[in-house]
Amino acid sequence: MHHDDSSPPLRPLQSHDGSLLQRMFTPLNLAAYITWFAICIAVLDPAKLRVGDQREFAGVAALIAMIALFVISASRRSPDGAHSSLWNIMAQGLLVVVAEWLLLGGQTAVLLIIVAGQIVLLLSPRMSALFMLALNAGIAALWVSRGNPVGAVLLSMLPVLGFQAFAALTGHYASTRESAREHLAQVNAELLATRRLLEESARAGERLKLSRELHDVAGHTLTALKLNLARITRDPTLAGREELKISSALADELLGQIRQVVSTLRAHDGLDLRAALEALAHPMPGVRIAIVIQDQLRVDDIEQAEVLLRCAQEAITNALRHGRASEIRLGLHRTDDGFALTVENDGTAPARIEYGNGLTGMRERLDAVGGTLEITSTPPRGLRLLARIPHGSPPERTP
Question: Higher-confidence residue: 135 or 322?
Answer without folding.
Answer: 135
